[in-house]
Amino acid sequence: MKNHLEALNKAFESRVRLGIMSLLMVNTAMDFGMLKEQLNITDGNLASHLNALDKLGYILITKQFIGKKPNTSYTATDPGRKAFSDHLDALERFISRSI
Amino acid sequence: MKNHLEALNKAFESRVRLGIMSLLMVNTAMDFGMLKEQLNITDGNLASHLNALDKLGYILITKQFIGKKPNTSYTATDPGRKAFSDHLDALERFISRSI
DNA sequence: TGTTTAACTTTGAATTACAAAGTACTTTTT
DNA sequence: AAAAAGTACTTTGTAATTCAAAGTTAAACA
């Protein structure tokens, strides 16, 4: 596929993963509950998308206890930030050619 | 889903349909062969995506003969242009909040 | 001991995407 | 006239993706 289109990252074609990554670009870290609330999806669905991003090395998962409660927090890795940023660049180039 | 994300149009989540519509925004009309060459996909795949866009009323299909050869050409309809433009706006708003 | 909370994992169903093969109709080639 | 090729599909079958719902684990609270 020509037209800058192949520069789009398949990982970010899903709205959920696009949402997760954009949240993790703005916020240095977010925990499971915060993501779930922002994205308004079921926990199983969220977990599976987080798992996909983790497998790609785009996010870092940190499990800890806050007080007595388990808390898992997610951060974008450098490769993740790079990949997302590249994707946004591709989208921007793409848009500016399409208007 | 919050964060402007629900404003994204599901029809344009696919790279192929994104590509088709962007080509039809720039070029007033394109025929099957041109689209196939630009997008570099099989004809069956292209036909099914064109069919999806047609069902949504986003493109107009015109069948004719050019010389002795059958020629089908595709144009973006006004609702199609509007929908695509709205999608790009949503993407832009989304991107500017994510960098 | 039983229930709740957090963060999953598993299951299953529905949708989507795609390549490859087949089709219809016409034209060109032999 | 018969065979091959071109255009634009449609059909078929498979693989991948997405999601909700239910089940799981482990600790904490009542």
Structure characteristics:
homodimer; Arc Repressor Mutant, subunit A; 18% strand; DNA-binding; three-stranded antiparallel beta sheet
Give the H and E element order of chain A: HEHHEEH
Oligomer: homodimer
> What does the largest sheet of chain A look like?
3 strands, antiparallel
Helix vs. strand class of chain A: alpha+beta
Q: Please write the CATH class name of chain A.
A: Mainly Alpha
Shape of chain A: elongated
Report the end-to-end length of chain A measured between terminal Cα atoms: 19 Å
Number of E strands of chain A: 3
Outline the structure in words.
Chain A is an alpha+beta fold. The first copy, chain A, has one domain (12-98): Winged helix-like DNA-binding domain superfamily/Winged helix DNA-binding domain (Arc Repressor Mutant, subunit A). Chain A is 55% helix and 18% strand. The longest helix of chain A has 21 residues, at 78-98. The two termini of chain A are 19 Å apart. Chain A binds chain B through residues 1-3, 5, 8, 13-16, 18-19, 21-23, 25-26, 38-41, 84-85, 88, 91-92, 94-95, 97-99, and chain B through 1-3, 5, 8, 13-16, 18-19, 21-23, 25-26, 38-41, 84-85, 88, 91-92, 94-95, 97-99. The structure holds a DNA duplex (30 and 30 nucleotides).
What does the secondary structure layout of this molecule look like, with pairings?
2 copies of one chain form a homodimer.
Chain A: H1 15-26, E1 30-31, H2 32-39, H3 43-55, E2 59-66, E3 69-76, H4 78-98
Antiparallel strand pairs in A: 1-3, 2-3
The structure holds a DNA duplex (30 and 30 nucleotides).
